[in-house]
Amino acid sequence: DTGVSQDPRHKITKRGQNVTFRCDPISEHNRLYWYRQTLGQGPEFLTYFQNEAQLEKSRLLSDRFSAERPKGSFSTLEIQRTEQGDSAMYLCASSRGALEGDTQYFGPGTRLTVL
Amino acid sequence: SQQGEEDPQALSIQEGENATMNCSYKTSINNLQWYRQNSGRGLVHLILIRSNEREKHSGRLRVTLDTSKKSSSLLITASRAADTASYFCATDALGSKPSYNFNKFYFGSGTKLNVKP
C-alpha cells in the first residue's frame, strides 16, 4: 500500500524561474488537495480537485499558480515567475471523501527555496 | 484567518509524562482531526473526532471535543522521545459551493512538543 508521493522533495530556483511539482495520490482516492506551509505555521489550503475537476481555489493562489489533474490521477502544481515569497513547503493530500470524514493523507512535501 | 488554534505553542516534558494540547476554533464543524508532523516532513493523521462525539481513544492518544466551547484537547499518555513533533488540529468548513460537498481544512499553527529522554 503506497501513500501519497511528491516529486521533487526539494527544489532550489532563482527568482523569475518557473517550477513544477508533481503529486501522486493514493490510487483509490478521488479527492486531491494542495497546501502551502511556511516555517512555524500550519498548512494553508490552496486548491482542491475531485477527480479531474478543480472545484475550489484559495485567494492565496495568484495568477502565477496553476494546478492540473488531467486524468484524475496525478496532479501538478506550477508556479510561474517565482518570487522569494513563494519559498515554502508545498504539501499534497488525498482523500476518499465523506466516508472517512474526509480524512486527508499527506505526502512528504516539496520544499521550494527561491533565491 | 485560520480556524483552529493550538495551545500551548510549545511544550517540553520528560519521557513518561503526559502531554496535553488544546485546540480552539471559531465556527461550527463537522469533524476535527489531529495530525502530527515531524520536522521537515509531511503530516501524519492521528485521529478524527466527529462533532457528535465527545471523546475518542487510539492507543496512547485521547481526544476530547466540546462543541459548546468550540475546543478540543489531545492527550498523549506515557510520552516517548519519538513523540517529539509538531501537533496540529484541523477543522473543516464547507467549500465555497456546498453542493461540492467537500471540506476545506483549516490548520492552526501547531503545538511543538519536545519529549526529553
Produce a short descriptive summary.
The complex is a heterodimer of chains A (115) and B (117). By secondary structure, chain A is mostly beta strands.
Description:
The complex is a heterodimer of chains A (115) and B (117). Chain A is built from no helices and eleven strands. Chain A has 115 residues and is an all-beta fold. Chain B has 117 residues and is mainly beta. In chain B, the strands form two sheets. In chain B, strands 2, 4, 5, 9, 10 and 11 form a six-stranded mixed β-sheet that branches. A five-stranded antiparallel β-sheet of chain B has the order 1-3-8-7-6, with no helix packed on it. In chain B, strand 9 and strand 10 form a beta hairpin. At the A-B interface, strand 5, strand 9 and strand 10 of A face strand 4, strand 5, strand 9 and strand 10 of B.
Structure keywords:
heterodimer; A: 115 residues; mainly beta; 7-stranded mixed sheet; 4-stranded antiparallel sheet; globular; B: 117 residues; 6-stranded mixed sheet; 5-stranded antiparallel sheet; 11 strands
Look at the helices and sheets of chain A and give the structural class: mainly beta
Helical fraction of chain B equals under 10%
Shape of chain B: globular
- What's the helix-strand series of chain A? EEEEEEEEEEE
Count every helix of chain B, treating DSSP H or I runs of 4 or more residues as helices.
Answer: 0
Beta-strand share of residues of chain B: over 45%
- Major sheet size, sense and barrel closure of chain B: 6 strands, mixed
Sequence-ordered SSE layout with sheet pairings:
The complex is a heterodimer of chains A (115) and B (117).
Chain A (H helix, E strand, L loop, with lengths): L4 E3 L2 E4 L5 E6 L6 E7 L6 E7 L2 E5 L7 E4 L6 E5 L8 E8 L9 E2 L3 E5 L1
Parallel strand pairs in A: 2-11
Antiparallel strand pairs in A: 1-3, 3-8, 4-5, 4-9, 5-6, 7-8, 9-10, 9-11
Chain B lengths: L4 E3 L2 E5 L4 E6 L6 E7 L5 E8 L4 E4 L2 E6 L4 E6 L8 E10 L8 E5 L3 E6 L1
Parallel strand pairs in B: 2-11
Antiparallel strand pairs in B: 1-3, 3-8, 4-5, 4-9, 6-7, 7-8, 9-10, 9-11
